[in-house]
Specification:
By secondary structure, this protein is of the alpha/beta class. It contains 15 helices and 17 strands. The protein is globular and about 65 Å long. The structure holds NADPH dihydro-nicotinamide-adenine-dinucleotide phosphate. NADPH dihydro-nicotinamide-adenine-dinucleotide phosphate binds next to helix 7, helix 8 and helix 11.
């Protein structure tokens, strides 16, 4: 017997969205010139108008960041800097519900995820780095660690506030000031964060937020007043940035795409594994750089795993992201939906077998049903390219060695998963896999103390943990 869930809508009344926003420069909100709409992807409702920063705004933000760096932030003791970070973290916790609702409205992710994952983790990043601010000499990053200066930070739309926290918290803890650009489709929580900076009385110019599109990002990347670029996004744009900073003295960290193998060995605990597969690919609609998007099943358990996986997928609730019962929300934009549709269609054309559970997708908004493709080979585009949506490609293997060869047969190297009850096999496999993050008998678990980053085309450098601190300090290895 199965029960129907009554709707459990979160209230929208906890947020007040302005009809139009400007930029946050030098501690103040300043009006923008041009604007573009930001849309709720679940309803296509225009939520607000976001300012598009051009050269004058980016120049002003870099100038404000430099002034704050020279006059205040780089001179302040780590202990004092830490107090501001603690204050920001506590205000984020106090305003957590507001942040969660705003994130869900602007991004389309289920409120359960923004409430239980994005916002608590964002606050945790500030708490964690607040703790480091006065202990940098003991972090194993040199005896007299020095900040780099002004950091230009460009973030994507999949975890808007969390990616902001990953960038801003370590930069501030190490004594840098920042100019941050959120993604054009998800700027609202960054603008709310600017209010938090004001509330925390953070010295003017330490955090500057300019909104805009790729052209604004390029202005930041190419600005001579910037000392470090921290970017999360597509490998394509990551390569453009790498080329742009190569002839300069700028430091750079790139957190790019992935095509993670999630490997299920014959001795895996199957029921737990099925939960892990679902979490690995359908969390955040699959808009996750480290998503377990290539499932590698050992042949003798493949049928059982697929049977249980399909049963489990029948119970995934897709729909209104503001409903607390929803598991999978809306695709972030029309453009991203088109990309998912196009790549999934290549799976059909190239001979893989598509399966999705029956689900009633809302008429308005951008939606894609959770999907698996079986009969996938390594040559298929859906096995090679990042789909960045709720689409799982299933491959099989006979021997552990074959699993490793298939897992590593990718230009990416961000993450991987291993499911096995044998510790020795897990350790062996994790040593063979070329991936920056490897989960064993779990997936998509994040913690500010743990470094995150990739090999090969998945990027350069690490974020989080002690390794992440070094990326914002002079003369310290970035790997
Ligand atoms: P992008 O790499 O284009 O965007 C990431 C950020 O970079 C955004 O803030 C974007 O601005 C900005 N940007 C775009 N062009 C430039 C540029 N030339 N110089 C500097 N900054 C720039 O990712 P998309 O949002 O277009 O997504 C495309 C694909 O990338 C997805 O389908 C997915 O496969 C992958 N992706 C991977 C992510 C990851 O975490 N690894 C995150 C997001 C996407 P704006 O948003 O305004 O265009």
């Amino acid at each position: 017997m199965s029960f129907e869930y009554a709707p459990a809508p979160e209230s929208r009344a906890v947020v007040s969205i302005k009809p139009k926003y400007g930029h946050f420069i030098g501690g103040k909100f300043v009006a923008g010139n041009k604007h573009f709409p930001t849309v709720n992807p679940a309803t296509e409702e225009v939520l607000s108008q976001i300012a598009l920063a051009g050269k004058p705004e980016v120049d002003a933000a870099v100038k404000a960041a430099r002034k704050a760096y020279v006059s205040t932030w780089s001179k302040m003791s780590g202990k004092e800097r830490g107090k501001y970070l603690y204050r920001i973290a506590r205000i984020m916790q106090e305003r957590a519900r507001e942040f969660a609702v705003l994130e869900t409205l602007d991004n389309g992710k289920p409120i359960r995820e923004s409430r239980d994952t994005d916002i608590p983790l964002a606050a945790a990043h500030f708490f964690y780095h607040a703790g480091w601010a006065d202990k940098l000499e003991f972090a194993g990053v040199g005896t007299s660690p020095k900040p780099l200066g002004v950091a230009g930070q460009i973030i994507p739309w999949n975890f808007p506030l969390l990616m902001l926290a990953w960038k801003v918290a370590p930069a501030l803890a190490t004594g840098n000031t920042v100019v941050l650009k959120p993604a054009e489709s998800t700027s609202l929580t960054a603008l709310l964060f600017a209010e938090v900076c004001q509330q925390a009385e953070l010295p003017a110019g330490v955090v500057n937020i300019v909104t805009g599109d790729g052209s604004t990002g390029a202005l930041i990347v190419n600005h001579p007043g910037i000392d470090k670029i921290a970017f999360t996004g597509s490998t394509e744009v990551g390569k453009i940035i790498a080329r742009a900073v190569a002839p300069t003295k700028k430091s750079v960290t790139l957190e790019l795409g992935g095509k993670a193998a999630n490997i299920v060995f014959e001795d895996a605990p199957i029921d737990e594994t099925v939960e892990g597969i679902v979490n690995g690919i359908f969390f955040n609609q699959g808009h996750v750089c480290c998503a377990g998007s290539r499932l590698l099943l050992q042949e003798n358990v493949a049928e059982e795993v697929l049977h249980k996986l399909k049963n489990r997928m029948e119970k995934i609730r897709v729909g209104d992201p503001m409903d607390k019962n929803t598991d999978v929300g809306a695709i972030n934009s029309k453009e991203q939906l088109a990309k998912i549709v196009e790549l999934a269609a290549t799976g059909d054309v190239e001979g893989a077998e598509r399966w999705s559970p029956a689900c009633n997708l809302p008429a308005k908004g951008f939606w894609f049903a959770p999907t698996i493709f079986t009969g996938v080979t390594q040559a298929h585009r859906i096995a090679r390219e990042e789909i960045f949506g709720p689409v799982l490609s299933v491959l099989t293997f006979r021997t552990p060695q074959e699993a490793i060869e298939k897992a590593n047969n990718t230009p990416f190297g961000l993450s991987a998963g291993i499911w096995s009850e044998k510790g020795s096999r897990t350790l062996w496999a994790s040593q063979q896999l070329r991936a920056g993050v490897i989960w064993a008998n779990t997936f998509n678990k994040f913690d500010p103390t743990s470094p995150f980053g990739g090999y090969k085309e998945s990027g350069w450098g690490r974020e989080g943990g002690r390794h992440g601190l070094s990326a914002y300090l002079k003369g310290v290895s970035h790997e």
